[in-house]
Amino acid sequence: MSRERQKRDGGQGLEAVETELMSFVNTHPDAVYNPFLTLKYCDITQDTPVEILHTVLLGVVKYSWHGTHTTWKDVEKSLYAARLQSTNTKGLSIPAIRAGYIMQYANSLIGRQLKILVQTNAFHVHDLVTEDQYQLIKATGVLAALLWVPEIRDMDEYLNDVDIAVANVLDSAALIDPSKIIAKVKYHILTHAVEDIRRFGPLIGVATESYESFNIIFRHCSILSNHLSPSRDIAYQLAKQETFKHLISGGWWKEEDGKYKQPGVSLQRYVGESAMLQQLYNVSHRLGAKDPIGHTVLVPVPRKDPTTGQANARQSYRFEETEARNALTNSVELKRPELAWFKCKSIVANSGDECRVGSWVFVRGLDQNSVTTLAGRVLEILQAEGGVYSFAVVERFQVAQALHPKFDMPVLVKPFNETTKVAVAAKDILFDFNAQHDCYTARCVNSGTRALTQERVDSGNIERYVEHQPIDRYVINTHAFHNAHRLRSVPGLREYLRPTLLNPDRRQFHQEAASAFRQSKAAAVETAPGQDGVPGPATQPPSASTAGPSTKSSKKRKRKNTAQSTIFTVLPPRAVPSQSV
């Protein structure tokens, strides 16, 4: 209502004002409500799950990384780069680590680099950051490993773990800078992860970045059309492709008579023989073309002998010449004297993982009737002549009773400090996982130097690396994404991996943190000088943990941080708007 009308009518009562406002709302809903809130078949508040790339990697992980590296000097950066480059990447399913590149472009990292940092930083920055920053790094690693699981076996238990992990991340961030809990919306979005997982399942299944590679297909459908009706042409073309993929993958369809039919044997045989179709439509796993359990890859043979120049023959070994000669086993085939054995560089485990020499694996116990599992490191992979049998020789380790005092992760040690070898068949290798050397206890330093090669040529530069001390003590990387769900299903290991609240009385912690934050804001306002030397309000400078790089050419508008009564409040469930009829 205009001011002129109020003056003319002498004012209106409260009921009249409410009636007129509601009349306007009912007659002009598009001017009041967002059109997305009135969609019939889509509830925008419920059908938009948490996007883990932008919320976790480009959100929480990037915040903690910025607060970590911005305070480092050249010495700390060099030490961190050497530690990061020395990371054991077996069982991480990540690209090759380029520590120099990461430190050179530390302020411009993308998702795949941040994915490396969240899985490994807990082992490398423990003495380079404050205790509060390190606690945030560990809490973020635990949460990320929980969110990047491809399957959920116990929904209630999993959701409880995620709820605790999210609470620990928020509380750890509040210790560093409470104002960011209010200013950064991505911290708030994390609190909706539990309800989104309950609605959609694992969040990695709705991660949008995995579908961005589809843009080229969508674009070609438009380019190759006649451009008269591109949207219709795109829909028709994609429908044809999906129908064809459904047929060649052995799908069923309903005929007019109500019966279901499936493609014939000839079509399935043709697809099974066509590597191009399998690659284009990714149907090899439906046709059984995936490497079977126990599939091995032999160690390559040098083409020619450097001394004689003749082609080398593959060398075979007797049982007494292998690492399995003094290993415990329940297999009779392994000790058959007439068999010759070849050494391999990889073997496919029961989970489909390609395990190599040096990989850390969990295997079944030697007693077939037992459900116990053993942890160990692969020493040797053997294949019998003719490829009938394949075995892996594993150096056995056991999980220590206490978690690591610094990393809060399970520790692997040798039983009774003795070397024990176990020879197991491929079907008894459950899965591989990532473990790191306990450099914190061994006090490993970056004292090693080696020549840096580029394109197999010595570049003349020297790089430093971490020399591991001779101590057989390793730490299970519970921040790793690869096989995180399988790791939590190992009997006896679940108790070590269950997250616990950092602050059991969270409300009391929030009230204390909010009170301290309000006092610091009030003190900053009182002590900040105003115009003509008169004390007055001033904007608090950004802390070193969250401040970004500044530019001289432009001035960014500073957001005003208003004191809140509490940092956290009990978040109500997402409002469900009324659907339009």
Task: Explain what you see.
Residues 517-581 are annotated as: Disordered. The chain is of the alpha+beta class. Among the domains are: 3-27, no CATH class; 212-281, no CATH class; 296-303 and 311-478, SH3 type barrels. 36% of the residues lie in helices and 15% in strands. The protein has 20 helices and 15 strands. The strands form 3 sheets. Strands 3, 4, 5, 6, 7, 8, 9, 10, 11, 12 and 15 form an 11-stranded antiparallel β-sheet that branches. The chain has a two-stranded antiparallel sheet with strand order 1-2. A hairpin with a 5-residue loop joins β7 and β8. The longest helix is centred in the N-terminal third of the chain and has 22 residues, at 155-176.
What is the 3D shape?
globular
Query: Quick one: how many beta strands?
Result: 15
Number of helices: 20
Q: What is the distance, rounded to the nearest whole angstrom, between the alpha carbons of the first and last residues?
A: 30 Å
Helix content: 25-40%
Structural class: alpha+beta
The fraction of residues in strands falls at: 5-15%
Give the radius of gyration: 30 Å
Largest sheet: 11 strands, antiparallel
Q: Which regions are unreliable across 5 or more consecutive residues at pLDDT < 50?
A: 531-581
CATH architecture of the domain at 296-303 and 311-478: Roll
In round numbers, the mean pLDDT is: 84
CATH topology name of the domain at 296-303 and 311-478, in short, is SH3 type barrels
Oligomer status: single chain
Biased composition (Polar residues): 541-551
Region (Disordered): 517-581
